[in-house]
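Box 3.1 A note on notation
Throughout this textbook, protein chains are presented in two layers. The first layer is the amino acid sequence; the second is a token string describing backbone geometry. Keep the layers aligned when reading.
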Amino acid sequence: MLTGKQKRFLRSKAHHLNPIFQVGKGGVNENMIKQIGEALEARELIKVSVLQNCEFDRDEVAESLAKGAKAELVQIIGNTIVLYKESIEHKQISLP
């Protein structure tokens, strides 16, 4: 689990990132979770945007993505979800 201080730190890091995934009408599927897992391994911190036509609540989407990719949910702001997972091979972010 992340502490408040670590979440603040990650939020500031994520501020300038652009969402690299979009969750639309189909919601979350296995393939998306797999790709997000790979992206997290490469980058550690990513944003996912939930489109207007998504049939699921953004909190549900965030939870299923975090669970599926075994990542930490850093923040949900508007329709954007910020996820963090410590990388095994490409560690770039050192948490306070």
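Helices lie at 4-14, 30-43, 58-68. The two ends are 13 Å apart (CA to CA).
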